Amino acid sequence: MQADFYYDPVRDAAGCQLSVTVLADRDHIRAEMREDALAAGFSIRECCSLEEYAQGPLAALGDLVLVDCAEASADAMALLSRLDMRGGKAGAQLVVSTTMPALDSVFGCFSMSAPQILVDPGRAERIIAIGQVLARVPNLRLREMGEEDRLMLLRLTEQVGRIAERLEKLSPGQREGGGAFRFESPSPAWHGDDRAHASGQSEKARPLLPDGPVLRRLIKARQMRLRYFDGSLFADPAWDILLDLAAARAERQQVSVTSLCIAAGVPATTALRWIGQMVEAGLLVRLSDPHDRRRAYIALADSTADAMARYCAEVGAAELAVV
């Protein structure tokens, strides 16, 4: 029998039930998102297609905005840009699902509201995204669980614990106390420059990033492991992202979000989470296209480029890349 977890109504500090705006052109997706939001404890403020919402009277957004945008039409992108502005000002939380072909355009529409962006997600991924929103709501109560529910939850917790332990053994370099699923921002002592290494060095003494072909050979060597081993053993999206952006910087190329998700070697939604966390940590920067404000690129922060250059110099990247 499937466990049936339902939340009590989600309420704010004043005791008012929080609401959701559901926008999707695909009828079955809209129906699923509406049902899942209701099950999570939200009331429905509005549920319609993107076109209907854009043409209707200006209405207040829900506390949560669920959007499914499969195609990057001009009208849809204009609506997403407005939702980004309104959501950022109102403090609404946005969960936006899209497709890989539309990802660059959709990503470029959001600069103020920090949405969760899901790429070709299944229903479970959407539910998890709603759960992440619920996790930020104070005083949230799960309904009373029966004994069968408790046993199921206990077994699931044990399974996740075992997986985490195995991943820890595959990642001996992680800092003490850092879990396999944990991503930490740089500590306050991390400066991203050479103050901790050679504070007296001049700017000219700093190493430079290797040439693009050198970094591309390193990336190719990493990818060749997939011919001989299970790729899940080597999932390291943060490092693959840094390498790809370092090569692009050396080649003076711009990197789109779609291209970077592919380079990360993990599902696009997972790659987007890593990119977002690395931008928040100051490792990466988001750059707007001066010719198209709806398009954005990702690049290394200058301090990150300096750190990558020092790393490559210390390990002898040019020598390692020689086949």
Report what the structure shows.
The chain has 13 helices and 8 strands. It folds into 2 domains: 19-134, Rossmann fold (3-Layer(aba) Sandwich), CATH 3.40.50.2300; 195-320, Winged helix-like DNA-binding domain superfamily/Winged helix DNA-binding domain (Arc Repressor Mutant, subunit A), CATH 1.10.10. The strands form 2 sheets. It has a 5-stranded parallel sheet with strand order 2-1-3-4-5, with helices on both faces. Strands 6-8-7 form a 3-stranded antiparallel sheet. Helix 3 (74-90) links the parallel strand 3 (64-69) and strand 4 (93-98). It has helices at 27-39, 50-55, 74-90, 103-108, 123-134, 147-170, 195-198, 212-224, 237-250, 257-264, 268-280, 302-315, 317-320; strands at 19-24, 43-48, 64-69, 93-98, 116-119, 255-256, 284-289, 292-300. It is elongated. Helix 1 (27-39) packs parallel to helix 5 (123-134) and helix 9 packs across helix 10. The chain is an alpha/beta fold and 323 residues long.
The structure class reads alpha/beta
Task: Please tally the helical runs, counting DSSP H or I stretches of 4 or more residues.
Answer: 13
User: What would CATH call the class of the largest domain?
Assistant: Mainly Alpha
Radius of gyration over all CA atoms, rounded: 22 Å
Record field, number of beta strands: 8
Protein name: MarR family transcriptional regulator
InterPro entries: WH-like_DNA-bd_sf (IPR036388), WH_DNA-bd_sf (IPR036390)
Region (Disordered): 172-207
